[in-house]
Amino acid sequence: MVMPNTLLEQSLNKRVSLLLKDGRILEGKLVGVDDYMNMVLEDTEETTQDKIRRLGKVILRGNNVVSIAIK
Amino acid sequence: MVMPNTLLEQSLNKRVSLLLKDGRILEGKLVGVDDYMNMVLEDTEETTQDKIRRLGKVILRGNNVVSIAIK
Amino acid sequence: MVMPNTLLEQSLNKRVSLLLKDGRILEGKLVGVDDYMNMVLEDTEETTQDKIRRLGKVILRGNNVVSIAIK
Amino acid sequence: MVMPNTLLEQSLNKRVSLLLKDGRILEGKLVGVDDYMNMVLEDTEETTQDKIRRLGKVILRGNNVVSIAIK
Amino acid sequence: MVMPNTLLEQSLNKRVSLLLKDGRILEGKLVGVDDYMNMVLEDTEETTQDKIRRLGKVILRGNNVVSIAIK
Amino acid sequence: MVMPNTLLEQSLNKRVSLLLKDGRILEGKLVGVDDYMNMVLEDTEETTQDKIRRLGKVILRGNNVVSIAIK
Amino acid sequence: MVMPNTLLEQSLNKRVSLLLKDGRILEGKLVGVDDYMNMVLEDTEETTQDKIRRLGKVILRGNNVVSIAIK
After folding, report:
1. How much is the pTM?
2. Which chains touch F (3 or more CB pairs under 8 A)?
3. What are the residues whose beta carbons fall under 8 Å from the beta carbon of G10, sequence distance 6 or more?
4. pLDDT digit string (tens) for G8-54?
5. Fold held by F4-70
6. What value does the mean pLDDT take over residues D16-36?
7. Cα–Cα distance for residue pair E54/E47, rounded to 1 Å
8. Boundaries of every domain in chain C
């Protein structure tokens, strides 16, 4: 049994790919997470339908996150 | 009487198919679940209208899940 | 006076038709329900605009359910 | 002063017309209600843009209800 | 300083115009309100894009209300 | 450091411009606010895509407000 | 490990770029933040699909914020 929160903390300093509720995909190095699944990413890239934007260091609100793929 | 949470815990290590609020379907092996129905899937495949993407290990936020079909 | 929760528990082992927030209709035998109106259905069929899919045993999140028709 | 909950309980066994968040209109005899405004209707008819469906006995989740017109 | 709840209670027996989240406008005499801003209107008229419907006595869920204009 | 609630209370009797979740813009004199950021505006004007409507005194539910610009 | 809230407080007096749920982007100097991630921005510019608007001093509700990029 792998608790979701435990896996997320074990993923610190790994690259993750986040799918947001509005369909955006953010990929970056996970450097922080709290109990609400708010996260801090570094070297973040945002992919929308046809564009990639480099966002650098980003704080993400957990309640907009659909899923987190561990790289 | 089968409590939803009990059935979900009994489904650990089985393949499940999740329907998300945005219409995506994720299929994978259920390896973790918590009280909020956040889940961890392995060997995950995402199906949208016309594409399949392999996502590997994925953490899912329970509040985006509509239904969980047990394989 | 018929309390909604009481009627739902009395409907165990009957077929129910659930309307979900996204317009899907799920029909199946109700075999479990909890205090959040999360439910377990067996022999579930999903009807969308023009398709029927057989889903077997399904766990449903109560907060995606609009209405429950008792057969 | 008419408290909303009091009026709803006084409306038991009357016909009511419910407007749901997705625009559907459900009309039926109100036979049950709880503190969350979950309701039980009998002889329910659902009206969408161009169709009427007879649904019989229906449980409704209060958080999908926009307004309740008393007949 | 005018507290929103105080103004609402002072508006009892006045006509109010409610804007709902789905864009509908309901106008009627405010005859009841509770702590969740659930309201009871009498002589209610609903205006959508091109139609007016007379609804009589209506219970409104506060969490669907965007704004309340006092006549 | 300027706390959001403090700034809002300091803005009493000033004109503010509210952006709502549905894209409407309301402009008026802020005469009341509570802990949920419910607000009371006077001399309110609503701007949608191509129309201006004069609304007079308006109560606004805080959870529909996206942002508040201080004039 | 960088907690999201800690990073946000360290970003006071820096320029940040906020992505909102409705797709708007707000950029400004962060001068205040509370526990709900409500924020105060100064010298704020709003970018929608094809327009830039200068908004000056703005209060933002945290629950409409998707992500915060630190400049």
Report:
1. 0.88
2. E, G
3. none
4. 999 999 999 999 998 899 999 999 999 999 999 999 999 877 789 89
5. SH3 type barrels. (2.30.30)
6. 94
7. 9
8. 4-70
